[in-house]
């Protein structure tokens, strides 16, 4: 059971809820804070005090006053009008993350929402009722308005949900579960959609996949070292202590562990004095990507425990402030950083693939072909990797440097953080396929060198790989092999390697 307090959620807890379907519950203390905040909103409405989003319009309409009799209509109209997302829906995993993060943020007690609304978000999580939320349409400031509006629609019994493996009308799922649609009261619609939970949920899922990718990319790089008789002196601890980066030191340590006992690697001067950068600089390059990922994790763990709606209610309603915590700039920049870090893991992996298949760079059969010339072997797998790497370079263009004014220039600078998070996820999927291609090529190279000479760790990785992807004894359609290998690598981390770092 994961207990939500609004302040203590971690990325690891997010993992257990969204992937492991761990049940969720709100802490007693956080519910008390929510109740106090809601009472403050009720007093504001009763006293006729003018407060943005409670009894005013939204955005450029913030100066339009709303009668007390229409406060509920205001919230309903808000949700319906803002639910204009387009494109393919987020995955169920991301939808679960959005439910979790929105509930946790509201439990901080600054939003004026009833506990009943938060209970429904948690109930959806625990009963696996997942809102169908289109991916496109958010500017990443004023909150993720369009995506979160599609989430909010399901609270009032509208829109669609993923339920028992099918997309159904929310009303049908609620009816089957014996639940009634909820009617939103003052500020509740705004509190549900004014936040960064779409970009943060997508970002958290992307981070977890990137962490997995960074881990398996090192393992496969170790096998490539064997396939190319790489020089292990470059991983000597003294080299990395001399520079001082923690993540670089840790990467070198893991490389030494993966290659322990190998009779395929070499020492400085045995075959050559030094290797190319894509081998020699694995700790420096992969370590730098780990630095970026650690930064991203730090920002995500702040954001998943942040109050990001507007206005925020303090001191039992004595202080209600319209601010800008909904602005997604911190996550937008973090996602753009992650895009670059992951793209680099694919870049250096593709360079290692080239060294495995190019006969001018090694003494292996050209393109690892069983009959060079008659059969192309891994030639076009390197093409595929190069294509994916090039695509990543376009996706890595920072989304956060763009901004388009909205709401008649009231909202004149936005983050585009949700675009950044979505593109980060795409880059990670492409990069995993590049790493899978390196794995296939590294296994083939290891066979030419002699698999009996492999290190204990890489030998196990080789045996597992060969259960998935047969040796290249003649040309075949390799597309399925790449997909099979990449999907296994994604699953491998979840099942076996969560704590490898």
UniProtKB/TrEMBL annotation:
<feature type="modified residue" description="2,3-didehydroalanine (Ser)">
    <location>
        <position position="142"/>
    </location>
</feature>
<comment type="pathway">
    <text>Amino-acid degradation; L-histidine degradation into L-glutamate; N-formimidoyl-L-glutamate from L-histidine: step 1/3.</text>
</comment>
<dbReference type="GO" id="GO:0005737">
    <property type="term" value="C:cytoplasm"/>
</dbReference>
<dbReference type="GO" id="GO:0019556">
    <property type="term" value="P:L-histidine catabolic process to glutamate and formamide"/>
</dbReference>
<dbReference type="InterPro" id="IPR005921">
    <property type="entry name" value="HutH"/>
</dbReference>
<keyword id="KW-0456">Lyase</keyword>
<dbReference type="GO" id="GO:0019557">
    <property type="term" value="P:L-histidine catabolic process to glutamate and formate"/>
</dbReference>
<dbReference type="Pfam" id="PF00221">
    <property type="entry name" value="Lyase_aromatic"/>
</dbReference>
<dbReference type="InterPro" id="IPR022313">
    <property type="entry name" value="Phe/His_NH3-lyase_AS"/>
</dbReference>
<dbReference type="InterPro" id="IPR001106">
    <property type="entry name" value="Aromatic_Lyase"/>
</dbReference>
<protein>
    <recommendedName>
        <fullName>Histidine ammonia-lyase</fullName>
        <ecNumber>4.3.1.3</ecNumber>
    </recommendedName>
</protein>
<dbReference type="InterPro" id="IPR024083">
    <property type="entry name" value="Fumarase/histidase_N"/>
</dbReference>
<keyword id="KW-0369">Histidine metabolism</keyword>
<keyword id="KW-0963">Cytoplasm</keyword>
<dbReference type="GO" id="GO:0004397">
    <property type="term" value="F:histidine ammonia-lyase activity"/>
</dbReference>
<comment type="similarity">
    <text>Belongs to the PAL/histidase family.</text>
</comment>
<feature type="cross-link" description="5-imidazolinone (Ala-Gly)">
    <location>
        <begin position="141"/>
        <end position="143"/>
    </location>
</feature>
<dbReference type="InterPro" id="IPR008948">
    <property type="entry name" value="L-Aspartase-like"/>
</dbReference>
